[in-house]
Amino acid sequence: MQHVNVDHVILATSRLDAGLDAFARLTGVVPERGGVHPGRGTENALAGLDQGRYLEILAPVSPSGPASADLTPSSWALRMSDIAGAVARLRSAGFTADGPIPGSRRRPDGSVLHWETAAVSGPGLELAPFLIEWAAGTAHPSATSPAGCALERTDVTVPQPAALQRFFDTLGLGMKVGTGERRLHLVLACPKGRVEL
């Protein structure tokens, strides 16, 4: 699948420290802690990708259960220049869409990032990327995160691809959805070689 307009991809892990160590061992790139998401109970660490994209490792602030170093692709985001217009197009096409919803996060250096997000929901859309538009004046995380990896492929397969394919088509993106087990698959080119997640 093409990764046109991909803003970032999210890897879920149960413990941020363990996830950071695992990513560094796999790739040769050490992500930088990004901060805590207010009101969401999560914290992250970031690594820059090529072409203005980045990777986010996301973990609960107060984890429960056994520690794990698993890094599981859990969601992804498409960058929008007019998120309100994109939401209007989706709703006109019959999709249930929430947003745009403002968000923010304070970086360890004290600077604050601002954005708006929107998402669709419904049967067959569980792996639909959410939409994000960064506020004017906000430094994009790809420009401030440790670099070294490139996003070679972003593939998504679902048992019934019609709804997700229509989502991409409505946004005018040339992405093709595969048929199969529900899965978001990433291929990265990194200092230690090719990494598949």
What's the layout of helices and strands?
Layout (H helix, E strand, L loop, with lengths): L5 E7 L3 H12 L4 E6 L4 E7 L5 E7 L11 E8 L3 H10 L3 E11 L5 E10 L8 E5 L15 E9 L3 H9 L7 E2 L3 E8 L2 E4 L1
Parallel strand pairs: 1-4, 5-8, 9-10
Antiparallel strand pairs: 1-5, 2-3, 3-4, 6-7, 7-8, 9-11, 11-12
CATH superfamily: 2,3-Dihydroxybiphenyl 1,2-Dioxygenase, domain 1
Distinct helical segment count:
3
Question: Any idea of the CATH topology?
Answer: 2,3-Dihydroxybiphenyl 1,2-Dioxygenase, domain 1
Distance separating the two termini: 15 Å
What's the mean pLDDT score?
90
Uncertain segments: none
User: What proportion strand?
Assistant: 35-45%
> What is the succession of H and E elements?
EHEEEEHEEEEHEEE
The coarse overall form would be: globular
For the largest beta-sheet, the strand count, sense and barrel status come to: 8 strands, mixed
Radius of gyration: 16 Å
Can you characterise this structure?
With 197 residues, this protein is an alpha+beta fold. It contains three helices and twelve strands, in the order E-H-E-E-E-E-H-E-E-E-E-H-E-E-E. The protein has one domain (6-196): 2,3-Dihydroxybiphenyl 1,2-Dioxygenase, domain 1, CATH 3.10.180. 16% of the residues lie in helices and 43% in strands. The strands form two sheets. An eight-stranded mixed β-sheet has the order 2-3-4-1-5-8-7-6.
